[in-house]
Amino acid sequence: MYHEAYTKLDLDETASIIDTVNKKVEGSLFDPLETTILAIEVPFYTDWRFLDISDHATNPPLQRFVFQKDDEYVFLDWTYKPIYQLNQDVPIKVDETNVLDYLRFFFSHVKSRHGRFTICESLESVSWKEEPPAEARKTFADIIKPMVIVEKGKDGTFKIEARMLLKDALFKTDVFVDPSGRVSMDNQEILVEDMPVLDHVFSQ
User: Fold this and answer.
1) 156 pLDDT exceeds 50?
2) Torsion, CA 122, CA 164, CA 68, CA 54, rounded to 10
3) Which DSSP category does 115 fall into?
4) Which of 29, 46, 50, 145 is most buried by a 10 A CB count?
5) Which runs of E-coded beta strand occur in 27-168?
6) Which helix (H) or strand (E) holds 22?
7) Are 66 and 53 within 8 A, CB to CB?
8) Residues forming a β-bridge with 149
9) Pairing of strands 158-166, 117-119
10) What is the structure's pLDDT at 200?
11) Which of 11-25, 34-48, 104-118, 153-167 comes out lowest in average pLDDT?
């Protein structure tokens, strides 16, 4: 989610956050000297920030995604439940300026029972198993397009046209975001099957 906008927290703030996080999680604990925390303000939650907490000195690496406001912490778990609960509690504010960022965040941190949906807005957003030849790249470039807001309904629900990957299939779909932040999809159309993408793109 717009990685260039993240800020790396200093050691003192990292240690303070890790002290709280370690009390709230089960299993392996974060070492504040080995942990990196990247923080970003998000436009759809007032006064909350998103934290990417990672310790790559452990094997396997530890990583947690957390929303934080003062001494309140909401831990993500790859389901929509903590996001929808936070949407209700804050509450979320979705408008024309931030709804696409919200979708980028949502699909980056939620897995469905079918697998991980990956939004594709450019060739650079695809992790290729092998670099496609020039002719294939041109074909993919003509198919893969940025998300577009199609309309906003009278009830405040946004309709967005998007291209997505599920496993190795690229498809076009309409994505709907209602004022409470709930996300749904309809009108899927397969564009390309057997895309040469890396397995980790759809197996995480």
Assistant:
1) yes
2) -70
3) B
4) 50
5) 35-41, 49-55, 62-69, 72-75, 117-119, 148-152, 158-166
6) helix 11-24
7) yes
8) 160
9) antiparallel
10) 45
11) 104-118
Closest CA to 97 of 48, 42, 155: 42
CA–CA dist 21, 104 (Å, integer): 25
- Please write the tens of the pLDDT for every residue from 69-114: 999 999 999 999 999 999 999 999 999 999 999 999 999 999 988 7
Q: What is the largest CA-CA distance in the chain?
A: 54
Sheet of strand 7-8, all strands in order from the earlier edge strand to the far edge = 7-8, 35-41, 49-55, 62-69, 72-75
28-36 LR contacts (CB < 8 Å, sep 24+): 28/58, 28/62, 30/55, 30/62, 30/64, 31/55, 31/57, 31/58, 34/58, 35/62, 36/8
What does pTM read for this prediction?
Answer: 0.89
Q: What is the mean pLDDT of the chain?
A: 90
Q: What is the dihedral of CA 100, 101, 106, 108, to 10 degrees?
A: 110
Residue 204: the pLDDT is 42
Tokens standing for residue 18: 């890790």
pLDDT at 163 over 90: yes
The DSSP code sequence of 159-176 is: EEEEEEEETTEEEEEEEE
DSSP for 57-83? TSSSPEEEEEEEETTEEEE--SSSHHH
